Amino acid sequence: MKKWTVILCLLLVPALASAGDRTLFVYNWTEYMPDEVLTAFEEKTGINVVYSTYDSNESMYAKVKLTRGKGYDVVFPSTYFVHKMRKEGLLSPIDHTSLANFKHLDPVLLDKPYDPGNTYSIPYVWGSTALAYNKDQVAPEKMRSWKDLWRPEFKNRLVMNDDVREVLGVGLIINGFSVNDTDPDHIRMAYESIRSLMPNIRVFSGDSPKQPLLNLEAWAGMVWNGEAYMAAQDFPAIQYAYPEEGAIFWVDSMVIPKEARNKKEALAFIDFILEPENALLVCEYIGYAPANRTAVSMMPEELKNNPTIFPDPEDVKKGEFQTDVGDAILVYERYWERLKTGL
Amino acid sequence: MNEKQGFKFFAVFLNMTWFALFVLAPGLMVVGISFLTRDISTFFTWPLTLDHYRELVDPVYAKVLGNSLVYSFNTTLLCLGIGYPFAWFLSRAPRHRRPLLLMMVIIPFWTSSLIRTYALVILMKANGIINTVLLAAGLVSEPVSMLYTDAAVYVGLVYSLLPFMILPLYAVLEKMDIRLMEAARDLGAKSLQVFLHVVLPLSLPGVMAGCIMVFLPAMGLFYIPDLLGGAKTMLVGNFIKNQFLTAGNWPFGSAASVFLLMLMVVMLGVYFFISSRFNRSQES
Fold first, then answer.
1. Smallest Cα distance from B51 to chain A, Å
2. Could you report the predicted ipTM of this complex, rounded to two decimals?
């Protein structure tokens, strides 16, 4: 129950903050970094880590924007938010020469249009949104395409992420459009498709889409690969599948806000996370692929060959990375409201 | 200024400052923002406009508000139905037992309602405690669907808000003069008549206070329908949150908040109007 951890973290903040003189404020997604890594960093450097979490890019962005990043030293936005925050001057440039472990990063994930030359962001992990199912209830051949979600036997048995871009994104994909489409007509078509999916949807999960699968409330649905990986650790019947139309992919990066007070400590932290041993630990725990090729080469075969974490290059090619849709988000939101009010 | 006055001044001043800083100022900011224009990079900007209030006149917002009102209304009725008899027996329990019984109503409040909602998930899920027991006892052959239904939402809302109904009812029922009921009975009234003509009218202030204290928070507890109902219906709380976070439309979100606030002010106004009339009729 990640909300509990959030509450615990909040309670611990004052205690930790007063414990030492060097402090680092890390703001990360829920269940996105194992405690061991944080403890190891504290032990190695003597810097106290104050760790808090968020569950959407949007809420992270609102806070960082309002405080101009004061109060946070390392944050983990997704690609399209790196782009947005960089454009708005919210980020502080990162000196690569002070990162001894920069060389371990996978060049395939570097120098992308959202941040040319990685001046402001260092990739952390990457992952996908695709299909998951409980193989006790669902045969694998029934989960090959996004369209399979519409099968009548899944009536009231699906879990979906409670995320407007991803849910309408599936609607866009099955109509043959990009998940980053900004054409209102296309978004309307996506909405109409998803509206016909509503009888199958049992739950929109905002915090942990693996829970309804583990609870046996849902038999299948759309989840993030790391959630599917973590669920399979407890309950091996949970399987993950890349739909033939292509999955939705993303990269999450580490950035330092412009007004961060502990920039030196932030760089030390980023460098620490880039150490292959630590990147490996993160991957084993959260089930997302590290952006770190040395870490990948060090992995046991079993992890390296896990298709949930490391999709076939063919599947990556078919998939699409999310980008910022600008003001079209208002159109998305309008249809999202209609979807949820049944209008 | 003597010491007592100094304390009074200090206490009042501290309270007023607190409310001014953390309730009034943010509230006024919301009102102010609701008249500004959306801006993608600064959240809001000039010029002043009434557009966002005009946008509220929309079937989607009406439906969102309607959903919330229905949930709140039903929750209030359920709480009243459960809370009234409970408060009655509580107020008639032996005097030395009452503190303990009251304590038991209040103790769950020591835990965050979010955590208690997660506890309900653990109880109600398909492989949860209730279903495990039912299956083991052979009462059902397949897990009963409880989680992610409207019934689950009501269980969560009633569970979280019931004490707000019980406490004001208990307060009036406990103070009620038992001799009035004895008098009614001596004059030949049946139990139902005693209840309808004596107990109920006298407890009306408690009923009103309890209803207000359940209804208004129920409008805002959107995480309970999200966690227990599966987030399939949008309530006012979700709507406002999405306007602020997802759509980045702070002025529209603010306008929706202001509208909700006005609605609550109207309901409170009705409550004060009725209760002051009630008090006057009591006095005369």
1. 15
2. 0.81
